Amino acid sequence: MPMVTVVTENVPPRLRGRLAIWLLEVRAGVYVGNISRRIREMIWQQITELTEEGNVVMAWATNTESGFDFQTHGENRRVPVEYDGLRLVSFLPVEEK
Question: Where are the beta strands (DSSP E) in 10-63?
Answer without folding.
Answer: 24-27, 30-34, 55-61
